[in-house]
Model the fold of this input.
Amino acid sequence: MNPTSPPNRSASPVPKPARAGAAVWRGSNGDSAKGAGIRAASSAAGVQIAGKSTAATVPHVVQRLDDSDPRRANTQTLEDIRNGATGIAIVFQDAPNAFGFGLPATAEALTEALADVPLARTHVRLDLHPHSRASVDWLVRILSERKIDPSRLDVSFGIDPAAIFAGTGRLRMSIEAMLESMPQSLAQFFALGVPGILLEADGRVFHNAGATAEQELGIMLASAKTYLRMFEKARQPVLYAAAHIGFALSVDQAHARSVAKFSALRSLWSRLLASYSVPDMPAVIHAETSYRMLTARDPESNILRNAVACFSAMRAGADTISVIAHTQPHGLPDAQARRIARNTPLIFQQEGNTFLPGDASDSDIATLAAPMADAAWAEFELIEAEGGVLRSVLDGKIQQRIAEARETAAIALRKGKPPIIGTTLHATGSAPDMRRLPERSEIAAAEGTIFCEQLPTIRLDELIEDAS
Done:
């Protein structure tokens, strides 16, 4: 394929919205049959909600594959899939969202961890990582060795240079060289016809550093703009590239604001596409429960926080959902903690049917979403005026604004607003007795060509501790 030619339109069509303001994941045939019968039924026909026909799909239940021992990671993953998980998120060591752990970033480790995993009927996402481009090659090699047709896959490659830069503090090449080379580098994946996400505007790194919802959304939109501009400069049709851009955001225990964040994101994406005269298309959104909301002192209360966040993501119509285990602040979760994380969305799906999104016209949500989108657009315009998201991160301007937001939140938390149950209000009297897997692995020294101020990953309860 010519690097400057458009992607294969027949193999990877521009998705057409099946309902207003909601994203619909285009999964593999095998997944529909294997994952849950209700997924196949709901995607085959409209589901009636309050008198409206809606093509609702069940979100993938995505479990983190983040153990430093590839063999143990494989055992965990096979157990997860046998017990209801329909997707995996591969989190490598040194990734911003690895929280000090992660699968070793080698082809051999990935091969061992994915042994016997039914990739053709499992949603696979490669979580953002400094070796994102290499890890895509590793995965493609595994698919080739197993003779799996890439067009049957349901995959997100999770490549987001802006989040990687801010989350690790480094890039392996200059901004100009990276943006110049990426369209050609990704051209072969367009040629493969993989029906999934190549580039992802990921807000989780910024959220877990203390960004407000408005800042998180504005940064994500600025990242998406960077990728559209990159393909435009390479003379590749923006229409085709846009279909391969996705989003990843954090959802926390603030239910209404979490749902509103999805609504705001969809309106922002539509507005950005309109600026390119591109027909509206659904935003494909991966939701992960917030790490920063988890507490170390009373981990059992995190189960409820995760439940609220998970419900919010389902009500909002997330395409994929990953629940961070309630014991994550104490290290790698054991089998029981992983089971609770996996079963949280499964209960909502199969017992509560909460995967059906709420009415987008809900007045409470709309009241929150409209000003949130306006503030996010203002953040986006500020970042654009600073030279784009990568330049703003390089100059430390995004980090400065997030630091200010983090300090504002810290001051409020120290006054008990909002309270953290089990920590600042009704605090438990003893330290939790946690069962956990081995301690963090040694991480390789930072390597890079350009460097920036690395965003911290800090929980709300740590903000309080820092003041004491």
Notes: The chain has one domain: 29-382. The mean pLDDT is 83. DSSP finds 17 helices and twelve strands in the chain. The CA atoms of residues 217 and 265 lie 7 Å apart.
